Amino acid sequence: MPAFVNQEECTGCGTCADVCPVEAITVDDVAEVDPDLCIDCGACADACPVSCITLE
Asked: Which of 9, 14, 18, 47 sits CB 3.0–4.6 Å from 52 for a disulfide?
């Protein structure tokens, strides 16, 4: 299952996008994960400073 971002908690810092090995995350005001690109590695969830990303 792809990573899920709780957009109410996301600060838009971009740390998750920086660590994503397949560039599946874009950040405007908040992070969004492209489920077609996400490989479920969990790097984004581990790196998130506010713990708003989970693997569904």
From this structure: 9
